[in-house]
Amino acid sequence: METLISCSDYPLFYNDAWENYTGFCENGDEDFPLAGYSGLPPVLSFFGSPAACQLSVLCADYAGEQLCQEAYRLGLTLGVNMIPVSLSLSPGKLSHALRRGLADSQAECLLFVRSGLNHIRKTASLRRQASQFLINGGAVCSPFMPEVRTGGEEERLYIDFLSTRKPFIMLLGLEKSRMDIVESALDEGSEIFIHSSFLAWTCAKILAGQGAQLFSTPGELKPFQDKCSAAVYPSGRGRFSFMGKSYDVFRQ
Prior knowledge:
Low-confidence stretches: 1-12
Number of helices: 10
Strand order of the largest sheet: 1-2-6-5-4
């Protein structure tokens, strides 16, 4: 307790968070995912049990409807093949489509949030999204920042590092501002896969030219060939089907 309280000035919120089933992991603990990095939030808080996933998916900020359908289909395919995924709660439409596909197919996910878990509890739309992943056996994690919403570069880097410290990373496009994040992941030994529909992004083209693998479905990639046997296919009107069930891209 002394170590946690000394990290910041939130001893009162600690008790409130604990009573609401929040878990904590301090910088310096054996399980802290970013040991060795300086200048980062000192405590990671989480709901649920973090999934033991080896795959992270990063999305570009902006995309049209057709690419959102591709992202949704990828989420469905990963979910129906029971491949755990880590990703961040980005506000972009593309990221929303991916999360919707993962949620609809009951995927096990590790969802990273930038604004603190207390903000999720008080925001109905975020609470609904987080609940879907918790129900499916995943977890929701965040820097421990009680009552504070931040959008600073330090926190963005923290979340991106958390979600990219995985052996495999799938890119649905890539913004220039995130190129250094992916390069750091490559230095850590990650393999980069680029969805072929998202090669219009300059950074994605650069990485493909440097040897990143292209794919249209996860079953095409060697690390997932043995796990990925179920196919999600188009069924018209922007929907997709699997085992007789129809999925709508933006079903609410």
